[in-house]
Amino acid sequence: MRLLLVEDDNHVAAALSAILARHGFEVTHARSGEEALQALLPDSGAPFGVVLLDLGLPDQDGFEVCGKIRKRTATPVIMVTARADVRSRIHGLNLGADDYVVKPYDTMELLARIHAVSRRTAAQDTGHGADESPDGPHPPLRLGPVTIELPTRQVSVNGTTVSLTRKEFDLLALLAQRPGVVFRREQIISEVWRTSWEGTGRTLEVHVASLRSKLRMPALIETVRGVGYRLVAPAH
Which GO annotations describe the biological process of this protein (predicted)? Predict the structure, then answer.
C-alpha cells in the first residue's frame, strides 16, 4: 500500500518511514501541507491508500489541510495530534478525517488504525459496507425526524441533509437498524471498524459525541454504562 506521511520533522518522519516500510508500506514523505496537496494531485502517480497527517505543520493549519484533502480525494485520512481533548477530535472528524491518533502513540496502535481504515474503505469500494442489503433496495429508515437512506448514505433531520463522515454514517446505520437494542462496544467496533482491537474504544466515544452534535439530538444515542450504546427512537 502507498502511504502519504505528512510530517515536518525529518527525524520523526525517517524513523516512522522505516517502521512502515518494514510492514510493507511504500511511504511518500511530505514536509508541509502544500507538499501533501501536490502529492495528492491526480497526475502524481498511483493513488495512496492512507494519508497520515500530522497537525503541526509549518505552512498551514493541519485541520485546514485535512479539509482540502477531503475536497479532492476520498483517501482515508488519519490525523496525528497532541491535542487529546474531545472537541479537537470531533472537529477533525467533521472535516472528514477517518480516524486520529494522539501523541505519544504506540507504533502497533498506529499500524492497527492504518489497517482498520484501509480494510473498511476496501469493503465499501467492493459493496460490502454497512448499507449493503442482500435482498435488494432497502427502504429509508425513519426515526422520528431522522431519515436514513442506506443506498445513498444520506441522512436528514426534518428534511435538512446532515453531512456525516463514513464512520459516522456506518455507526448510525448500525444502531438505527435495531432501535432500542443495546449494541455492545465490542460488537460496534467489530462491525463498523472491522477490528477487535481494544484501543478503538476511544474513537467510538468520539464518533458518538460527534453524531449527537451533528444531529442536534443528544438523546438519540443512549450510553448504556459498562455495555455499549443503543438508539432511542424519538417521537414523531
Answer: regulation of DNA-templated transcription
